[in-house]
Amino acid sequence: MKQWLRKMRIVSVLAFLALILSGCGENYLSALKPAGEVAEQQYDLIMFSLAVMTLVIVVVTVIFIYVMIRFRRKKGEENKIPKQVEGSHKLELVWTIIPIILVIILSVPTVAVTFSQGDVSAIGKKDADGNPENLVVNVRAHLYWWEFEYPDLGIVTSQDLVIPTDERVYFQLSSADVKHSFWIPPLGGKMDNNPENINKFFLHVDQEKAEEANNVFYGKCAELCGPSHAFMDFKVKAMPRDEFDQWVLDMKNAEAPEPTTDLARQGEEVFNNSCITCHAISASNDAPLFAPNLTNFAEREKIAGILDHNEEELKNWIRDGQKYKPGNPMPEFKKDAISDEDLDALAAYLMELKVQDK
Ligand code: CUA
């Protein structure tokens, strides 16, 4: 009975693991489904190390089983002691040299890839016309949201990182408060956002792989930074260069949109009275930086990085922000601060903040 129970316990643990781990491995989220040059090299390194380690495990296991069987105490030979090999120079050399060779085999490709992926000398290079050769994005992490500044293009956005496919994009990572870490599992990384220095690296998205993921990848904060660390998500929209150029143009030309309904017009007033001191609705560089830029809010994938993008969730977020992201610095707007009617109007207005498909 007891043994049967124990067996069932193992089976149920395995079934549970299978259930939760089957959520991993999606194209938009998994480091095991690399979608670009950097992630592919890192994936190859993981697989190569795994192969070497598997080989070691197999060899050791085979020797272990052989020794167990070969040197078992047999009937009639109870007192026989096999030849003792303690202090054998030959054996000592073998099990010292083989691991050294394995470490060298592991370290050569690892060091080579580390140095080639750490090469950010292309940042700041100009072509013959004096234009930057590569796209650079300054990523500033905040409790608990992400700001993306394109210094050479003069635009700022937040929460949804937009990048072109099939070229290297260089990132300069920093933080406005505590340590965070910038991680887009299918694209590679991760790397820390520190308040005291700027870390640099590059990523690359394959257009074909981007299409498989419907052009949206998930990004995460990978450094425990506070009570809402686990909710510090962002999205990556990867698109061909010409579409990206169009997006940049639309962002640069974005003007505060004219509200299309009376409700949205009322919402604009609420926004100008309550929100605009922290939230910018212009993508230009000199916008305030202590809250997410909302220029293209209506085109975001999620509300606050985690909630479905609809008016209902938007209103929930404004009313009860602490419920969804504990410890986040945005004040909650309870009924005494903003009436139901004003909240409806505000949501209607925010949902019209678009730079494309107007
Ligand atoms: Cu930011 Cu964890």
Automatic annotation (TrEMBL):
Binds a copper A center. Residues 262-354 form the Cytochrome c domain. The keyword Cytoplasm does not apply. This is Cytochrome c oxidase subunit 2. It comes from Lederbergia graminis. The keyword Transmembrane helix applies. Its EC number is 7.1.1.9. It is an enzyme of class 7 (translocase). Keywords: Copper, Electron transport, Heme, Iron, Membrane, Metal-binding, Respiratory chain, Translocase, Transmembrane, Transmembrane helix, Transport. The chain crosses the membrane at residues 45-69, 93-115. It is a multi-pass membrane protein. Residues 132-250 form the Cytochrome oxidase subunit II copper A binding domain. The lineage of its organism: Bacteria, Bacillati, Bacillota, Bacilli, Bacillales.
